[in-house]
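dumping the sequnces here before i forget
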Amino acid sequence: MDRILVTGGAGFIGSNFVHHVVANTRAHVTVLDKLTYAATQESLEGIPDDRVTLVVGDIAEPDVVEPLVAETDAVVHYAAESHNDNSLSDPGPFIRTNVVGTFTLLEAARKHDKRFHHVSTDEVYGDLPLREESLDDPKRFTEDTPYNPSSPYSASKAGSDHLVRAWVRSFDVRATISNCSNNYGPWQHIEKFIPRQITEVIDGRRPRVYGDGRNVRDWIHTEDHSSAVLAILERGHIGETYLIGADGERNNLEVVQAILRHFGRSVDDIEFVRDRAGHDRRYAIESGKLRHHLDWHPQYQDFDAGLKATIEWYVANEAWWRPHKDAVEAAYAAKGQ
Ligand code: NAD
Ligand code: TDX
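..and the predicted 3d for all of it:
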């Protein structure tokens, strides 16, 4: 593959993937990104001009999408509205970008017979009971888990997954799908859990934890997500779905306590705030298919070390997130969170 089109390549995970492709292949990358509030364009700085081209545009616009898909070898589709809390306040943009945008890309991939990889989330499967509440059945998500999304965000991602499956079956589009667990690492928007709590503690405030804080997320470093997506793009079987995870289950209290400890604060220094509507209890990924079939293995399995490096990154890069902090907190405060 000489040319790869990465949608959402100026976002948190997409930009990491662009760096990964530039470092590990000889492909030229074209990024198609609308540069919404969530874009982190600075993260693409430093890549040689002859390796990456940024096109600012909307994936739901056929006139923008079609010529770009026509001139690429493969599409890797990250662009999305990605924050559950925003989807509860205003679902419209999630339907347009995640559903109509994916449809628009699929139609172009069909017309020009292009390889397509769709990046999705484990949230399409709904949630699992906590381990301590189901000791005899501590199951995890697999590729066979039935879809059961809870929020407008996860429903829109589930819809996009179904479109990809239908375009494979009905139109022979050469597509694969990956469903990954919660990512962490540099350049994640401070509306998200880990960066929000790091920056709250930097500002001398208490971390804001929804509900009882026992909700579990299965954390994976974004660099491991990128290596998995590249493995699927290069070696994945057309029509297959692969779950991506790195055995990183932690409850939200454990994560904020690790952040508080890092800054020398009391682990009890926590503000419990209004719970998220429909808040999924636990996510957990069984990623054996990806590991055994494609010989992929995560490199960042020490969550505590990865979290420490991420905290240090946010301390060192305050100039990037500081301009957005007051507006993010004002929006949360208006919702009692
Ligand atoms: P993000 O919100 O940080 O970035 C999304 C990017 O998409 C931004 O650069 C934004 O400008 C762009 N975008 C949004 N709407 C667009 C449109 N209509 N046209 C073109 N570009 C548009 O998101 P992220 O956390 O980096 O997530 C990237 C992808 O990975 C999403 O598809 C998400 O569902 C998936 N995913 C995320 C996680 C996670 O933990 N964050 C886990 C699993 C899967
Ligand atoms: O301030 C907060 N306090 C809190 O307790 C925030 C922002 C979140 N939370 C909780 C909610 C979740 O249990 O922390 C957990 C993680 O929250 P988010 O960072 O909003 O992530 P989540 O809703 O799990 O979704 C993320 O992972 C799957 C990404 O945002 C999605 O794009 C991805 O698909």
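The longest strand covers residues 115-121.
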